[in-house]
């Protein structure tokens, strides 16, 4: 198949969207498909042997490391030249909306992968009245997709409640070699917690939408050493509030594998996770998890089996759950033994094979886009014969 991926972010920006797109590209390369990527900002010219086309982007003033793409006629041009069988929209918002419009005009079916809780993100930054506008915009994009893939059962229910049609469940895979209890390092543990403390770790962006302001409450627990992996706009304030915590900064590759496997407890403070890859990676590394009972973690954390869930609006119960595991070595050992087994079936290979089946299904269907595009929708072969019309309105 020929797959065009239009993504809201890509390398060098590292996040859940980028990670998923990279794993999909690697799978497509291994299995003999053709692909290309359209993404905002400066980045590599290729990945896994596939070309990357870039579009204009700007940085958010309150989050300089986060780039937002801008609509561009380059998207239509790139799709016309590549002639895809399917368009994969990775967390479509702005660039993805342009990709959806271009796909509809060209008569190419689109698979939209919902990945970011934009309404929750906005609320964490004080934009509490934006929910209706955000969901209205997301509906505008997703009603034109041949299929929308939701990463978790909780997200799927929310999408359904907001009128998003043609939903299917598609989770995220995990690299079981990279995230493995075998990477646990006693040498590293002595460096991180020289007094033998229980290591409670967090891995992720240090930003308001991840509610990292809750971490200082854990640093006060007796016998606990908080270890923070990641970077973001909240890093400076967290360092000031947790002078005794260990801040590792952004880590990747074997360094991240070793640090994560060396935790005793993994804590996730966010409450707006559509999936939460960090939780899955911790489980694969054999680390029991404490996470909010909301969104993606509901599918991953089985209370008393591989971790604990706390009410999303209760920092006190999060602290109590961490304190309980920190003080109960037997419970940690039992949950650690169950953690990896709980995600063994969630490999990227299996998930990407499932994704390709979605591609094949929508490519074989005679899908009609939303009525606003019906007047200009024609089959792909007809569009090829009318190249000048395809540029209309771009």
UniProtKB/TrEMBL annotation:
Coiled coil: none annotated. One of its GO terms (biological process) is carbohydrate derivative biosynthetic process. This is GDP-mannose-dependent alpha-mannosyltransferase. It comes from the Bacteria. GO terms for molecular function: hexosyltransferase activity. Keywords: Glycosyltransferase, Transferase. SUPFAM superfamilies: UDP-Glycosyltransferase/glycogen phosphorylase. Residues 14-178 form the Glycosyltransferase subfamily 4-like N-terminal domain. Signal peptide: none annotated. It comes from Planotetraspora kaengkrachanensis. Residues 190-340 form the Glycosyl transferase family domain.
